[in-house]
User: Fold these one by one.
Assistant:
Number 1:
Amino acid sequence: MAEKTNYNFSVAPEKVDFMLHATIESLCSDILNVAGVDAKHKGISADVLMQQNRSWVLSRLSVELDRQPKQYEEYGILTWVNPHTSRLISTRNFELSDSEGKQFGRAVSQWCVIDFEKRMPVSLEEVEHLFTDKFCDAPSPCEAPRKVRGIEPSVTRKHEVRYSDIDFNRHVNTMRYIRMMLNTLPIEYLTEPRPLRLDIHFAKECRLGEVLTIGYEQRENLSLFEIRNGEDAVACTAAIEWK
Amino acid sequence: MAEKTNYNFSVAPEKVDFMLHATIESLCSDILNVAGVDAKHKGISADVLMQQNRSWVLSRLSVELDRQPKQYEEYGILTWVNPHTSRLISTRNFELSDSEGKQFGRAVSQWCVIDFEKRMPVSLEEVEHLFTDKFCDAPSPCEAPRKVRGIEPSVTRKHEVRYSDIDFNRHVNTMRYIRMMLNTLPIEYLTEPRPLRLDIHFAKECRLGEVLTIGYEQRENLSLFEIRNGEDAVACTAAIEWK
């Protein structure tokens, strides 16, 4: 069995928004960076899977933030991978704590292994040997990602995928979807930071040059988003619950 | 006389582009962060000027990059302020070096002190007392920012200023202008990193909700940009010379 592992961060000025708090995008980015670095340390990273023409793909993410740390604040992210209980989904957990050890955030991520040749998810049984002694059987720190469906946008915006949006695969960087969504939200929701829960589901990759449509619907305390690709297929959906 | 002061950085994954090199935007962001932190350490920061309802405003910046460091690479930024030779402009210099001490970049920034009440630049003589022993009389490491004028755009794009673009003043974050420009450049210029020089001139502030027009002209090895605000006034101009 592996232990939970901690990684330290600080809120550099480029990570804050106009309220001088770390953006949701930057905190999610740190969470994903931790996933990448920890997987590398444990020998279960995309690099290892690539030897068989496979890679990890992030499918769903839930993030609860009691607060967003301020500029220059230091914090830690604790991470661990649960033993697989699903044939296709691997669960990696995160706890975010301030420099005094007080927890202010939690996240649960769900990943698939994709075979690039077949363009299909692979059964985790095929990679189980990599995980010997890599699991930590501690419960997830919050509810797993919820499904986000049935969004009926009342506001839509267009966004053309450009240079600053893409990753090394020339696909839209996962975190950019969050940026596009927050850029569609009325600014009033972002002037008073308050506890929130984000559920996000990545369904399709978007590419350089595609014109995306970001749809937004407010349903009571839920801000709902869907991003459609250039062919009008749903690429990403999300909900922010304001607490 | 003060010494040159060094600050260390590493290229976190959120700082790279699809070529896995630190973006020009992220390197310029680090340069400006160093300016802010070093000014704070030396007691010449915007906080101190704010006591008299004044602040530093970045007017022009020149940056030379022999190369852009790779993801996870470590590097240092050395900074110093020159004795004032102009009544209105303070010059702060930067040298970027890799972990082995090899210099790969240089920058010169020119700043004004603005009086918020009069909305006018202040003579540096009025703040000269702050600078006792804070100057370092070493020459700038590269040519001061050049003027960028007479751009005749052959390509234009629109960009509405949204949440992720603004700083704590609700003005467009200085670094976002660079992002907008690179997002307008044909992607081919960014697939083969090569030495470059950037000259950028900040003329006007842009605000949340304004629809900006980004114009681009290619003139031999010069990529020229101008950004116009919602009233069609030039807010920012820049040139990238590809070497």
Number 2:
Amino acid sequence: MAITAAHTARAPRIRLGMVGGGRGAFIGAVHRIASRIDDQYELVAGAFSSDPDRSAASAADLGVSRSYGSFAEMAQKEARRKDGIEAVAIVTPNHMHAPVALEFLKRGIHVICDKPLTATLPEAKKLAKAAEASGVVFALTHNYTGYPMIRQAKAMVQAGDLGEIRLVQVEYAQDWLAHEVDNKQADWRTDPARSGAGGSTGDIGTHAFNLANFVSGLTLTELAADLQSFVPGRRVDDNAHVLLRYNSGARGMLWCSQVAAGQENGLRLRIYGTKAGIEWEQENPNYLWVTPIGAPRYRLTRGGAGSGEAAARVTRIPPGHPEGYLEGFANIYAEAGRAIIARRDGSALDAAVSFPGLKEGLEGVAFVDACVRSSAKNGAWTKLAL
Amino acid sequence: MAITAAHTARAPRIRLGMVGGGRGAFIGAVHRIASRIDDQYELVAGAFSSDPDRSAASAADLGVSRSYGSFAEMAQKEARRKDGIEAVAIVTPNHMHAPVALEFLKRGIHVICDKPLTATLPEAKKLAKAAEASGVVFALTHNYTGYPMIRQAKAMVQAGDLGEIRLVQVEYAQDWLAHEVDNKQADWRTDPARSGAGGSTGDIGTHAFNLANFVSGLTLTELAADLQSFVPGRRVDDNAHVLLRYNSGARGMLWCSQVAAGQENGLRLRIYGTKAGIEWEQENPNYLWVTPIGAPRYRLTRGGAGSGEAAARVTRIPPGHPEGYLEGFANIYAEAGRAIIARRDGSALDAAVSFPGLKEGLEGVAFVDACVRSSAKNGAWTKLAL
Amino acid sequence: MAITAAHTARAPRIRLGMVGGGRGAFIGAVHRIASRIDDQYELVAGAFSSDPDRSAASAADLGVSRSYGSFAEMAQKEARRKDGIEAVAIVTPNHMHAPVALEFLKRGIHVICDKPLTATLPEAKKLAKAAEASGVVFALTHNYTGYPMIRQAKAMVQAGDLGEIRLVQVEYAQDWLAHEVDNKQADWRTDPARSGAGGSTGDIGTHAFNLANFVSGLTLTELAADLQSFVPGRRVDDNAHVLLRYNSGARGMLWCSQVAAGQENGLRLRIYGTKAGIEWEQENPNYLWVTPIGAPRYRLTRGGAGSGEAAARVTRIPPGHPEGYLEGFANIYAEAGRAIIARRDGSALDAAVSFPGLKEGLEGVAFVDACVRSSAKNGAWTKLAL
Amino acid sequence: MAITAAHTARAPRIRLGMVGGGRGAFIGAVHRIASRIDDQYELVAGAFSSDPDRSAASAADLGVSRSYGSFAEMAQKEARRKDGIEAVAIVTPNHMHAPVALEFLKRGIHVICDKPLTATLPEAKKLAKAAEASGVVFALTHNYTGYPMIRQAKAMVQAGDLGEIRLVQVEYAQDWLAHEVDNKQADWRTDPARSGAGGSTGDIGTHAFNLANFVSGLTLTELAADLQSFVPGRRVDDNAHVLLRYNSGARGMLWCSQVAAGQENGLRLRIYGTKAGIEWEQENPNYLWVTPIGAPRYRLTRGGAGSGEAAARVTRIPPGHPEGYLEGFANIYAEAGRAIIARRDGSALDAAVSFPGLKEGLEGVAFVDACVRSSAKNGAWTKLAL
């Protein structure tokens, strides 16, 4: 029941900037709330829009004093200030992740980047190389890995509670693109120039893929994908059926869809091993079901009996008091923050700290790339081009 | 709330024989209960075992007066009696379905046969041809299509409530073969000589496939299958991942498994169209979830508000009083019984009567055959050899 | 997974008569199906209506050869036949239970009577006395105690798995009388002359009360009731709130309602002890939730891992294959049938056999009586007048 | 999908102080997170403990610059500063609510006070009078009324969607005091001198009572309570069964328990009217079930189709992205913040703004008082002494 997050606030707050996330944006606001929940960050600068006036208006809305008309200007000027930002949150459409990130990391500014890493695989490789060379902390907000019960699931897999993993069933179903949609969120996500070659695969398939990797600890060897664009005129996939083969011999299926009628944000993971399985659904994330062979199915709750340290260290409130999406997202910020502060202080980072970064980002973009290539070859088994 | 089933009992009960289903059998007992629930049948003869003594012992257990040591003897002798059986229930392992059925149908005795139709596709084609020529009623107990809410789902699809179907997600997960098992039920199901080339695909995959076809009304064009035998030494598949392409352009995924830890009888169907989706789970079969685009998800209950005639005609008790597996199974018997009585009386059969038969049986065996062939070609898209 | 019920059929079927249950009746049809499921009974005679023509018409519908125009005639004539009925099922409105039962039991014919035992407490006491004196088997169809997971729950309480019981929360919510209703089912249930002084308390409150007693093993000491008739002009209660005090010091609440909007047949039992709790819902009766203190909540399934012998002996099919209301009801028939056959054979009755009878019937009527008296005294604590 | 909360941040942040909530406290940390989520408050001062050293240590933990050794000192000194606190959060044990609040409100400092309002009814009346006289904003953190779907439920009741309300079923079940517990949280809650005469009734019963009032809009006329202390030696109730009679003729039941085995934070509200019912559970707060008479049950989701403006104005993220306890709590802070800023600016307060305050506080303490008095008179119907 401990509320431990506040303790880390004793270090001075991390000075944060943001690129993107102006008026009408969704994910920018999520990043800002996530950065506040544990009082670890302070948002002090932003290039909230590529239009300087709109950027300034958003800054005023948010009570942020330093507003910039371009990310390049922001990178240059902040890097020169003594009290300049220590980290930047990148919440632009996909095709802008790489250019923006490169501008900041080359100046030693840590990066917290929305997923997927980039719109294309060559870009991703280039960015990963540059980021590694720079030595900055690079966090990618595959936020679902921040949920405590996902941490619990991973810990159980690692402890061998499931036995040897045989099967991974993961899906992410939405319906918001079931028909022609015309708004800011939809427009760039269905434009290959901005989203990349993958539509649903890039936007949500990468989350599903990442989540399965995170919990299972497995590495995907090859996949066979059948991609569809159900909505006439759509230029990217809005539904994908993918068969999975992992290095260990485990097999799986991944389904992602933005046209599954009546689905809101149906991310669901099921993993079955030789001893037991686990089942988790994002829409009710405080529960983890465990399904042993030969014993009754049971429900672990966030912080409740049987839930261990891996979950406890990223939870804030007692069992029965549900945490949600924002807290899970905040956990990515908190974990990245621990790394940033360790870097600032020159202190050792707690080995338990975990957040997605360049490796996961590269894998995600390679996953989309492989899906698109496999589907173009009528579902031929295709290896990730890592 | 009407209890209408009893009305059909006014016709004299159908004289039923059984082949297989002796002591220790599972599905034979299910067939017997199913045949009794609506008081339409009377079990009067049986070749419950190929061992005459065991057959007689089972007959005594069951209070059945006419016991035979072989199905051939039973077919011959019953055909000669004035009060001989009108129908035979075949509840043997798969490889015996065809030889037994042929013996009865050539004598004009109606057949109620457990699924799959046969162990091999050539056998299935031969049997289907002979059965059609004979003119007997041939029912195949794909019992899950007997559930009222499955009838409701089909009626909703037909009425256009879902719009144009885009996606079919169907799965059937069990864990009873997760490890080496040694019992009567497991032995023949993992022996290709008795079960056919498919393991989980034949035993439960055919159910899933049939259920999706029944509700969606779609025809499968081709499939791509990745079959596994996770348990060392197993000679048939115990898990299968299958991608589906339907004639209409709809796509789908089918997963069947007998090694999914902690799963009992997890048959689950989800279908999504341009307007709405439906979701159904066999383990709680009295509910059908409807998931419209742009309106709240709602729950239809068997006999409850919003549930229509297609469900009502195969239900016995008011909403909130759950019906289960045996009642669903009994609905196949009741529907086949209506056809048998119509044949006996020379009367017209109510157009609403529906039960799986030769067409569904052929498709099921062709499905298994295509899965095995596709998997052997590393998941190449493969057409059903119908 | 054993299908054992059929074995008892080796004894000749019990010859059964029925009083009530003619065309349009609900519960009569349920009794008939329940009597058939395990092939233990044969319905051979009936006074299905007090109108001889209607009785004969129902008999013809049902294929029952011996039809009577009155229960008295039936009792007399059947008692004289060598092949006369051995047991009678009474499925009339409440006020007729006692007169009918007395007529049969005084002739040594076993009685299977719908609940509640009678419409009034004096009648109940008289009937109980007469029935005990007669020595017949007397079963009362508090059918919910026939559900396997209710047997499992009782066994767990008896084994001490819950520790000392502290709390009983039981409810039974429907909405079918939420407004003025005019049909055969509603008419007699809202007429005190036929239903007795209790409305919802008699019709469903007695089920809830009985279920709680059965599982908990506790005896109610006193209750405080607040009864309402929400529908204008209704002459009996359609909703009741009842506080419970048990002999052991345990406390509880009982809610029954026929005006709870949107509820179908919401019978739900929760019992909490010093070590663990159990939770069960009739609308999905194959699951029993166990809620230990200090360990995760788990789900027992009918026949699944962790479910014991008490449930197994009243189940027919494997876990994951849902059983429902009719199978639960059939278990009361099966248990009573075991007692009837033991009586017929002079054999000892298996100690595990359990079905509700006179004691439970008396308690139920006393419960209704105490509710009505307490409510009339503005909810004063009131003892059962047993 | 709008993220609107941030817009209110354009006003300068509200300077907040805190009394209580030092190291090891639970609810203080919750208040702090809640105050941060929408960026409306800045915590600048605290009397986190009555021990000055402990207070200072907590302030250092939290990065709060102004630390005080007593609430009285803090009230005096802050009131004198130009940049002194505008509002104080009181998160002490119950008996300290009144003395602390009085000290601040008499200096015109707004109060955000944890529930229940006070430990005794006379105190509550005195505090309410003084607070009203002072004119400050007084918010009481009955946080569950901050959940969006609770706002939705209230709006539906007000719109008449349920018809006339007949029934209220509310419960709040936990098990953390099922046995003797010895920790800071448990100690004061089971000490009548600090918690007041009610145990579970005060700690959680008041939440349940408040929630039912908030959604139903009804006023309780009288109650009949049966209170228990199941754990030997416990000086306050740990379980309560309460019958409810509302002014409109509606009736209800309230159950609160801290000894219900296996329950974490089981607050559950069900309200049934002449047209429909609603059902909500705190542990999965993003769903509201609506149960009409004569139509299928449906599920409203936070922000999803059919969910209206009342919910939308207190939600931050799209449907399918779960919000939890902290966001609900933050909504109370956000609503109170709107009132505080309106007061600061002299602007009109949006009529939609709603948060619990003195009226709800008084009712809650009167509820506990009536429960204790009724139970002492063996459950006699007792009016609230308002």
Number 3:
Amino acid sequence: MSPALILTRAAPPADILAADANDPLRGFRARFQLPEGLIYLDGNSLGALPAATPARLARAIDHEWGHDLIGSWNSHDWFGAPRRVGDKIAGLIGAGAGEVIVADSVSVNLFKLLTAALERQAGRRTILSEPGNFPTDLYMAQGLARMLGDRALRTVPADDIIAAIDDDTAVVMLTHVHYKTGRKLDMAAITAAAHAKGALVLWDLSHSAGAIPVDLNGCGADLAVGCGYKYLNGGPGAPAFLFVARRLQDELVSPLAGWMGHARPFDFIDDYEPGAGITRFACGTPPMLSLIALEQGVDLILDADPGLIAAKAEALSEMFIRSVETRCAGLGLSLVSPRAFADRGSHVSFAHERAYEICRALIARGVVGDFRAPDVVRFGFTPLYTRFSDVWAAGDALADVLETRAWDSPAFRVRTAVT
Amino acid sequence: MSPALILTRAAPPADILAADANDPLRGFRARFQLPEGLIYLDGNSLGALPAATPARLARAIDHEWGHDLIGSWNSHDWFGAPRRVGDKIAGLIGAGAGEVIVADSVSVNLFKLLTAALERQAGRRTILSEPGNFPTDLYMAQGLARMLGDRALRTVPADDIIAAIDDDTAVVMLTHVHYKTGRKLDMAAITAAAHAKGALVLWDLSHSAGAIPVDLNGCGADLAVGCGYKYLNGGPGAPAFLFVARRLQDELVSPLAGWMGHARPFDFIDDYEPGAGITRFACGTPPMLSLIALEQGVDLILDADPGLIAAKAEALSEMFIRSVETRCAGLGLSLVSPRAFADRGSHVSFAHERAYEICRALIARGVVGDFRAPDVVRFGFTPLYTRFSDVWAAGDALADVLETRAWDSPAFRVRTAVT
């Protein structure tokens, strides 16, 4: 994405400029370090760099690691960081203090919570999910089922989930906002239906936390995991988080009985004893540099009014869909995401048989969305830094790519891995 | 550890100064950013900051994350980093290319390899280890045994391990250099004895990799894990690594079937298929900032001659033991580590009933070792940056603390968690 690739763009119309000028969140964009001229609609894959993060990390590197060295575990409270940042994230997802901890990756956290849930739900053999859920969610459940032998992952379409919950369902594992389609599931209704049948629910918040309202305790949720490097702007591969409702914490034991989850890790005794509360779901030593970056990203979001974030997520995505409906009609795109904002998150996807090449052609025009196999191009709207003029220009670029069949260029056909 | 705490020290004798002047590794100290006046003997807990790391991380933060954003997974080969850095670490531990990958924490990697080993060793029920092994190793095995129900962790003293291996032993799990005592086990002999009984061996290299010679393939080793933030100088909580001998890679499947270990992660298909070779032991998205810091630390060690590193580890630790034997005789210390370097790693431990307070009193004198419950004070010697004059001064400070009973001060009794 060198600056040379960024084309000169037409000025947006007055109403678009007015929307940016009147945006109550407009001041937040300056708190991110974004490349000049780039329209970045992939914050749902890797969030942008908060402007305060480089200096914070430089201090962590030079002063905490370099100068204070091992003492920083105490003097800079590295030890407390997983719970401290967890408590901050709790404020974004309707959880209470002591219900969230930062640890490991989404994948590893899924394994911990699924395993603990299966143990509690003795006699029930099924993990219920939907086909096409984010692959790592399905894979982790498959790995666990393979390991245990007598449990199985069962998938049914999202619309059939509630009907499929039965006495054999140990845990329902769903992603709140679907990574590909952006469809948002009804957390309250599915959780209530699961509880009525004695099942637990594990929610993956990777594509919702930080972008749209999540109310775990308001929905009576049991368990959740989520990603640190998408809307939380924690940097590439930032550690993930997990939530266990307080009422369940004493009943659940992590299979990954690492020393950081021990009741007294520095007693160095031979026998594992799970720590109190959410601490027992920690495992090994956390990657502090990545964790400190995550804290900066979370702090930034906490400065914004969550109602304004949600309203802007709706306005941005609605404007984009309308723009595509108007300007790209008849050009082969079909909306994959639900049309109504009430049914989706903050990203919007379209299918096209040449989706991969379209994605590449857009990147060449300085508009970064992403491709999701086999035929989806996906655009993420991050309320804190995406402008209405960005959305307008992205629609313009997309129309141009389709009208000119820019995607026919052989240059856009070479496949590379894209997250 | 403010500079105000550093006392003026006596100048070392001429032979000590000569040893530093003649040290063939003396140039490496300037490649670390160490606090002025501090004698840091805890690089076996958190390695010091390589001088090149801040600039490398600033580039990763500003340019790769901030500017190139999601494209960096390809353009800066973030995708390839776990295997690339793994291949570099392989060069330090006698492994081949494609046998090591950087992933997760030591704890999580232990779980992956123990589980995969147990599955392969069907019919054998025991994980054999030693009491007092690093707690997370024992805890992870306990968590796994608890989860599976029909397997168990059995511990016998290190000297009895070989005799204890029997037809029920699925895997022997040992730490090559003991975290507390510094005792080094005979990797070749134990591995051969295990193989003779049909057992596998999993070696934890956390306290050996980067400090003393390790020859996994020379010993016919099966499996290993190791730490990124000790002698590899990868920074606090740097990701860990794992080794699977090439001959075993196709037979073993990770229970943590994350998408980064899938054969084709970007096909986004519903069914897990383990990737080729060592890649299948990756799990979730790696913490890139911490991983990039680790690569700097590993690159630095690779610039040094491993024979010189080992020779200096011996010379430093031998000098320290002699110094304590001479200057602290009769003052209540007893050597916990093996006397002969052939039987230990690069750290040395002494027991004393007031070990905790002694450790605090030394820190107040600018000498940083660490305390390990219940009664051990531990000193790590990092050949690339520890000087002979540091070792001399540490011995001097220790003698002073003991002679003056400085540890009797109430200020040193307050306990804080120390890694």
Number 4:
Amino acid sequence: MILVNGVAADSVAATDRGLAYGDGVFRTLLVSHGKPQCWSRHYRKLAQDCAALAMACPPKDVLASELALAAGATGDGVGKIIVTRGSGARGYAPPQPSVPTRIVAVSASPQHPEAFLRSGVKVRLCRIRLSSQPRLAGVKHLNRLENVLARAEWNDPSIAEGLLLDEEGHAISGTMTNLFIVEGGSVLTPRLSRCGVAGVTRERVMEAAARQGMVCREDHLPWQRVLDAQEVLLVNSVIGAWHVRECGNRRWEPGGFTGRVREWLDEKED
Amino acid sequence: MILVNGVAADSVAATDRGLAYGDGVFRTLLVSHGKPQCWSRHYRKLAQDCAALAMACPPKDVLASELALAAGATGDGVGKIIVTRGSGARGYAPPQPSVPTRIVAVSASPQHPEAFLRSGVKVRLCRIRLSSQPRLAGVKHLNRLENVLARAEWNDPSIAEGLLLDEEGHAISGTMTNLFIVEGGSVLTPRLSRCGVAGVTRERVMEAAARQGMVCREDHLPWQRVLDAQEVLLVNSVIGAWHVRECGNRRWEPGGFTGRVREWLDEKED
């Protein structure tokens, strides 16, 4: 079910700036028994992303009840929240004041092969490079053509994800996942000060690793460092954590870190 | 009036990928007496931009009749055509096959102060820099957050436009216009191989200048070259050509080139 500004609907205004310019942000998260998972964290990130575009963020309790409603009788699925700057006349100038549009939907959880979790995933390196825009780096905004073009590079269903580099050749993320590598005794994830999306699951992993006393830090990760890593994993709020077992000619044996990450992600949060 | 896939409507599907990812392209053009102006050129550019995203482009005659219909009884206004990859399930992978959505609207022409045409315009240099993405450079796609953020940098109505540099400090365009400068006996416009939108009016000016035997070429234009130029002008399909008279401390006297450009743009095309 989809709710647009709280009302069951299957459409949005044709003049919405989310459509015209991608002028908005979004969140993807699990809904279980009618409850959005890790909701405080997701809402905080949504509010930060709205602030990055100088947009008002809808209230937390309103969005939570709409997710519950959209989840329907089963109460389970993948929730998506889009917040746009609302409708406006032609032209880039944001309307003053603007009235945000919120779109809340819950759909069935994706059916990834069970082997992705059990044996790890095969990934590819995408040809398209992520552009550098410090003003938008980290923000999950609606300008996602790079992700679309990257995902369109392959249609082999045995390839679970495509990895993306920035224009200088540093690994940034997957098309829909954040990236971690294990190198020596350290856990590293790409710095996202120039591109990429700083996801909620990435944040959870970094915090949990720090709580366990592990060295976990953001760094510049030239592609060769990923290939040389002992363990590579991909995370997001829907899949949890996938161990990367293959990329091009490089094979990785299962390592111990992905299992620990799954345990951390199984811990409940508000 | 707005037509969505040929039907008068004020909304589009909430699952449209134009909204979800900015997965689409658009055109803005004048409609006069029910006829889209410079239509062959605009349609060619629309088809090129659709091809850049591997999307089908709606037929030329269909769009022309929809623009005429949307222009209503007066037949005049600013036409906008949006073509998206259509609706799809959650996820970046383009649906196979996809059915494009077309949105055709005509709105009243913007009321810019008459002095903008007569005496030239005051512009500012925007702080945000355009990111570099060769795969999308030149394409008028729906990922326009940089333009929105740039346009949000000022609300002084005496400033007609903001100019944008790339991350290396080269002038690229205005937020809604293409840029030309006159330097010595030459006419120059920024190279758009890494960012920017290659507009139809820019193309018309370049072709007309060449027909007149003038040297007119694309070049890298560090900001200082713009400041040092004898004449600076901004063009698009709606405003025609504006002479830049002021940017920061720099003032320009009216030059002869803007007037010639207006004469060229007044020539009718199919």
